[in-house]
């Protein structure tokens, strides 16, 4: 049984990814920050259905705490599937964007990627098999007014994906990013109205978290061994 860690497993897309990886036979570490209760309920649901899951809680921006939790965890058995899904947006038109909004969004996506991924790397490399999937955004591909911070953070994640993929390709580890368009979660609810969605998405609907999770489940599988360094967008035809 492979160990998988999904950051932001307490959120809309993250929960769907956890369910999918558990259904595929992984032991799933469901990571939460403030949503510990939601993550515990999800772990209980997965275990009640015969799967295997447990909750890990930390702020991905706190490098010392993240290392304290993850380093002992991978000492004896590597986490071979990592989904860096935790992310926030804090939108403002650029002239009015506060420095704090810029730094926080970058901190969660970019420093969070570093803090969580690095402690898992050496054990994953030693095991000669791994899947790292970073949840990016269409905003990094098209740009989006009001999201200079968010698109910059996700753009950094895309570039990190490509470079890390080259570093570890010969070790049987793939590194890819999935860039969703508008997906039906509380995050998108606050950003897009039904009219926005009808105007922006050729399929005239938001995607579901399960549709994103199915793509990530495939990228995490043995069948996806030759896909690496890619930014794969799932967006109902937006681009
Ligand atoms: P949610 O708001 O539902 O989930 C976000 C998750 O990130 C939560 O589990 C939250 O944990 C976690 N998180 C936030 N800040 C921190 C932090 N400092 N430390 C640790 N965890 C943190 O959003 P979605 O499910 O919609 O988004 C998931 C990912 O998908 C994000 O990276 C987002 O940018 C990306 N995305 C979403 C799109 C959409 O339309 N929904 C479109 C494109 C990309 P907790 O709640 O426990 O605090």
From TrEMBL:
Keywords: Oxidoreductase. One of its GO terms (molecular function) is oxidoreductase activity. Pfam families: adh_short (PF00106). SUPFAM superfamilies: NAD(P)-binding Rossmann-fold domains. Residues 2-186 form the Ketoreductase domain. SMART domains: PKS_KR. It comes from the Bacteria. Coiled coil: none annotated. This is Short-chain dehydrogenase/reductase SDR. It comes from Sulfuricella denitrificans (strain DSM 22764 / NBRC 105220 / skB26). The keyword Oxidoreductase applies. Belongs to the short-chain dehydrogenases/reductases (SDR) family.
């Amino acid at each position: 049984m492979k160990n998988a860690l999904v950051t932001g497993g307490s959120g809309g897309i993250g929960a769907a990814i956890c369910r999918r990886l558990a259904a595929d036979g992984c032991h799933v570490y469901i990571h939460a920050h403030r949503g510990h209760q939601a993550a515990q309920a999800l772990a209980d649901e997965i275990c009640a259905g015969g799967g295997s899951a447990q909750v890990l809680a930390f702020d991905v921006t706190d490098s010392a705490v993240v290392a304290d939790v993850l380093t002992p965890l991978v000492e004896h058995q590597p986490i071979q599937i990592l989904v860096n899904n935790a992310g926030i947006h804090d939108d403002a038109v650029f002239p009015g964007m506060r420095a704090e909004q810029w730094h926080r969004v970058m901190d969660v996506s970019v420093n969070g990627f570093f803090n969580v991924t690095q402690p898992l790397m050496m054990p994953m490399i030693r095991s000669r098999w791994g899947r790292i999937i970073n949840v990016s955004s269409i905003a990094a591909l098209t740009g989006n007014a009001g999201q200079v911070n968010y698109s910059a953070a996700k753009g950094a994640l895309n570039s990190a994906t490509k470079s890390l993929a080259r570093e570890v390709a010969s070790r049987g580890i793939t590194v890819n990013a999935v860039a969703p368009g508008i997906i039906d979660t509380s995050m998108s609810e606050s950003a897009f109205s039904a009219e926005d969605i009808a105007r922006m998405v050729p399929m005239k609907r938001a995607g579901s978290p399960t549709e994103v999770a199915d793509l990530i489940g495939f990228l995490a599988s043995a069948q996806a061994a030759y896909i690496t360094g890619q930014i794969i967008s799932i967006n109902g035809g937006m681009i």
